[in-house]
Amino acid sequence: MTSRRIEYGSRSSGAGVSTRFWLGAASLLALSACLSPAEQRARADEMVGQADAPSMNVRVVEGLAAVRQFDAERLSLWQSAPSIQFDLQSEESGALELVIDNCMAGSVVEQIEGEPAELDVLPSERVTQLRSRLVANTSGRRVFEVRPPRTSGPFHIALLSDVQRAIDRFGDIVTKLNEQPDLDFLLGAGDLTQGGTHEQLQRFVAELQPLNVPYYTTLGNHELGVSPSLFQTYFGRGSLHFEHRGVHFTLLDSASATIDPMVYEWIDDWGRRGRDALHVVAMHIPPIDPVGVRNGSFASREEAAKLLGRLKGHDVDLTLYGHIHSYYRFDNGGIPARISGGGGAIPERFDTIGRHFLVIDLQPDEQRFETHVVRVDPGD
């Protein structure tokens, strides 16, 4: 399979990362011609983490990182999960800079398989970045792992969604998040931007730079302003699964008020993996709007029941949503649910909670969790 490089502008000083991206031969533009928007994005998910360069190729296991840049000088990845593995093959010897962004503080990159190589640590620009120099004296295949510190026991994450036009005030939220003790990472339930354009996605990446924890997120309907969606290019898969410290996390792309049929097959696989553990599922549009103030739910009630039944059958413990710009705590299909749309987008009428995010305390051994709201504007 041949591939081509697609360049979207030049280096962005605000984002601090190159905006050169690689896509497979079945490009998103080709996909848009014959598939529904939800299926376009599911097919695009399958291509995330794969890139070719002259005499080299890289494959990220399960697509848990987006390839931001790949050429003779640099491999740059944006992680979508705390731990990733990637397979790097080269027909020539030489040196390559590895830049891993959106990783947990204290993470390391190690070679776990393949031909011998040297990895020298380089200074990083922020706590969520790893930089290394890879020196390979021979050609061949090498497998690397990026992982956070090995720890166990209870831990904390946060949930944030629906920033949209409030990006100019996003710095206040970052400051508040950085004040939270011992967060492992931040989950996102979509609507990062107002219209999903290159400029808006670049701006969001730039605003994340001061954040002390990585942001693992799916997309929302506001990322669909450009067709096909550019989300995967910047942030990776819209539907994905990972495990961290004994807890399973599934993020689903419900941005079109539906789940594509092929994603249901992934849900069954991920549900089996997480059945005997604490399992958290996040998506943007909830299957059922618990209050009905804006019909913020799936287009089909039949599909909503199907999805909730599927999640219940896999013993999912907690579902998280955005889209509705307020906070709600409820159950759906017998599964505890939280809506947190407090990133600053236009609030629901009569809403009094204002900008906020959700902190989730997770206890893997006891398969228990607790949630509480942190208000960014307590005076509102």
Describe the fold and architecture.
It is a single chain. It is built from seven helices and 23 strands. It has a six-stranded mixed sheet with strand order 16-17-18-19-21-20, with helices on one face. The chain has a five-stranded antiparallel sheet with strand order 3-4-7-12-9, with no helix packed on it. The longest helix is centred in the last third of the chain and has 14 residues. The relative contact order is 0.13. The N terminus is likely disordered.
Anisotropy-based shape:
globular
Q: Provide the β-strand percentage band.
A: 35-45%
pLDDT averaged residue by residue:
90
Strand order of the largest sheet: 16-17-18-19-21-20
Q: Measure the end-to-end span.
A: 55 Å
- Which architecture of the largest domain does the CATH hierarchy give at level 2? 4-Layer Sandwich
The total count of strands amounts to: 23
CATH topology of the largest domain: Purple Acid Phosphatase, chain A, domain 2
Quickly give the structural class. alpha/beta
Q: Indicate the percent of residues in helices.
A: 10-25%
Written as H for each helix and E for each strand, in order along the chain, the element string is EEHHEEEEEEEEEEEHEHEHEEHEHEEEEE
Unreliable stretches covering 5 or more consecutive residues: 1-26
Number of domains: 2
Annotation field: number of helices: 7
- Biggest beta sheet attributes: 6 strands, mixed
Radius of gyration: 20 Å
**Name given to the CATH homologous superfamily of the largest domain:** Metallo-dependent phosphatases
The top level CATH class name of the largest domain? Alpha Beta
